[in-house]
Amino acid sequence: MDVQEYLVTLGIRPAELTGLKELPGSTKNALTPLVLLAPWLNTTPLSRALDKFEESYPSRRYFIDVDTYYRIKNDEPNEAKQDWFKLAQKPADLNVWWNLLSDYPYTNPCLLMAGQSIEIALEQIKWAREHSRTFCLRINLAEGVGNGIPVWMPELVKKLEKDGSNDYAVVFEFGWVEDALLVAAVASGYTKELFANIPREVPVAVSCTTFPTAFTTFHGIGERVFSNRELVNQIKRDTNHPRIIYGDWGTTKPRSYRHANRPTNRMDYPTDNSWVIARNQGEHVSFQIAAKRIKDCQHWSGDLGVWGEQLIESTAAGHEFAIDTMPKMIAARINIHLHRQAFYGHLPQPAALDEEWTD
Asked: What mean pLDDT comes out for the span 318-341?
């Protein structure tokens, strides 16, 4: 599996899938998704979620892990929820995992390490290789959620080094954090401690999201800078590892089940290193007015040639079928962010994009 220089963590939720689906094919080729598996809405079986993802990202390989942020509500669980529950256990039911992934050759498994022994980890690697897959060592360090680093990880890495293995990726996952730079020292330390001698071609990604959890401070139009790119550069300097790659959550956050009021209408617009947010305090703004604010601000590009930006433009112009719901706005935001980060610093001209969106 050729891992690209942008590894994006995505949940299987409608906005993520729409934003991804509407990307040009060349943009999809320039990123590598790491998908968090959970049931697709209330449908069953669990494979339905993979079907929905592959509709948005067809005929391309991706990493897959279990979405441990997902929660089963008190209603009667269906088959999909029951299978997810078996995968979320510590240890996970690997027979359920392997039976599911066997039918999806584009999936490349993250090792399910919580509560497992090194022998079971090696079995998972063997399964991946026997099924022509690569695999991922996704080390979840998210506060209150992650399982940390297994005690046997140094021994496993030494075995991989001894074998000259290069058919895997390493991901340090921190979930939602206040500032991406807060995780730099931890990521650098573990990279030097555990992965200093792995083959040069094995990518090490550091993933986190700082997308705002509240928007009450924004009025009119404002900007929130994110420092994930600076994080990557700092870890490169600290470790001298040859392949530290960029990772984020595509402007999304982990699933949350805290009760929240209906969000106030707003329009979000990603730049290379920030999110521009148009809204009103204390009252709804129309999507058209919010889109006009975005289009009239200094950060507006207008020539990306992707669905999300064209959708904001159509909304500002008052066209039918433009943004009229928050989920549609979020899908547009995700679409723009994925395109910008996939081609960071080298955005192609719209004419060079295939599958360009048209109204």
From this structure: 96
